[in-house]
Amino acid sequence: MSNGAKNSLDMHQNLLADGGDFVSACLSVRDVIGLPSLRNSRVVAGADGLDRPVEMTNVMEVPDILPWVKPRELLLTRAYPLRDRPEEIADLLTTLENRGVSAVCFKPGRYLEEIPASAIDEANRISLPIIHLGDGVGFDEIMHEVLSHNLDRRAELIRKTEQTMRELVDVVINDGNLDDVCQMLAERIGVAAAVTTLDGRVRCMRTHSSVSIADVGRGDGAEDGDHTASDNSERSRNAVADELEVLECFDRSGRFRVEDEPSGLERLGQGGSGRRYSWGNCRIEGGDKTLGRIVAFGEGALGATDFRLIEQAAAAAALVLTREQAITAVESKYRTDFVLEVLRGHIASTDRVLSHAESLGWDLSRPINVAVAEVDSESDQTDPENKRAMQSLFADAWTKVVSQDDPAAAVVGSGDQVILLLGAADTEEITARLRSFIADVRGYGGGGRRQFSVGISKPAPDVSGLAAAYQEAMRALEVGRQLERGQGLSHYDSLGVYRLLLQVTKKEELRSFAREVLGPLAGDDKEEYEGLRITLQALLDHNLNVAETARSLFFHYNTLRYRITKLEHMVGSFTEDPNLRLSLALALQIVRLP
Q1: 136 burial via Cβ count (<10 Å: 0-12, 13-18, 19+)
Q2: Residue percentage of the chain with pLDDT more than 70
Q3: Is residue 242 a contact partner of residue 265, using CB atoms and an 8 Å limit?
Q4: Res. 10: pLDDT tops 60
């Protein structure tokens, strides 16, 4: 990174001044040696530490100064306590460094003719600046100037903080969005800012306007001049996002690890180019609910002022999110009610339904596959107070991935269920598309932390067939959930014998048949019964080929022969009776029905 870019990204407790430069909350050692009272001073050692912050000054003229030393102090001394022991200055410097002292100003002369070489070497080793004060300077002048300049800087910070809050409020009042809030925070913190959902999915990320692709060490073989300003801005933003997503605060899918990232705590890590970054986050609270997180990234230490800025941005983001949620809730209910009415068969006029769907951006004039994704309620451990937020995230994730593939598809959420009206395709193609959607939804975080199943209908030729298609999708969903333990994907055409079994309205008749055929194996009164059912199913799947079945179950041949004997004692001679095998095959499927 260039020196100019590095300076523009320095971020210790700072804000942008009106001219675009950062305002630090306190002077640095470098700033101090530029004050009028130190015009004749010179740095004799520890020059690598000139960027240390100086919050206050102190005078060392007593032997027991250490109990009174505080971090970020500029220590002034004539070396009177060490006038007879100059060889101890090196050890003292090490102790002062451990106490957090920013620099030591010596005024040699009366008590110390020159600073010992051992002290110079130690100061250089620990990067603790030693400043040789010129003649005629008084300690009171230095203390006054450091104090007054720090007070001026803090007054400016307060003014800028208040200005930032006013600007953030203006963003909300003038219908600004989360991008606007993130951009303002990124400009003031230094590198980037992002807003995430409750479960850490990144909703938006904006970067500081001065950060370029070159700054993060990424190029694509083309010079900036080959692109428009808008192109370069987008490329820079993507480059920074790629750089930051390598940090440990993100998982492999790009989700911010909200469960491992404490709010209000600075963290450090290494980006994709090897450069180190700091970051901190704050919860976005709306009333008594957490709406998400706002995260700021920089290349310097995050101080109290930075976290106050992040908190201010979180408050503005909460207002934006609350407004968005209110609008989305009304629009979502309106869309969901319309789709549910169509799926219930309440169609007074096909033309009116098609026209209304078109106004919502949906194309229902084509053949449609209905798909239903539903969270498995038995395995769902979502906190009740966050239930609605997680349902919204689930629907949003589906909307995002489906719209990229089929912009004219209808996607609506209803509780833990998401209903999709997709352009029709054959069984193999639509199943592959849904499998891809599921992988993307879990990657986006909307469903990855919640188990869910998906059912797909046969194509409905027009809107009049959507009600029947919805029932088919629900039946496929129920079977898939049962067979795949809450994470199934089933097409109605792939249900096989289940399509017939599901037509039987009296489920008790089916269960009675299963008990008659399987006997005790129809239940789970003993742990071994499930294993025996698996063995029986494997034998039927392999046409009673003992060798192939043993290999598929990883059984010894003799073990399987023993199990076959045990099964025939319980259900009859199925190895010799084809009709019994058919009954057993049906009974095994009935046992697996929801």
Answers
A1: exposed
A2: 86
A3: no
A4: no
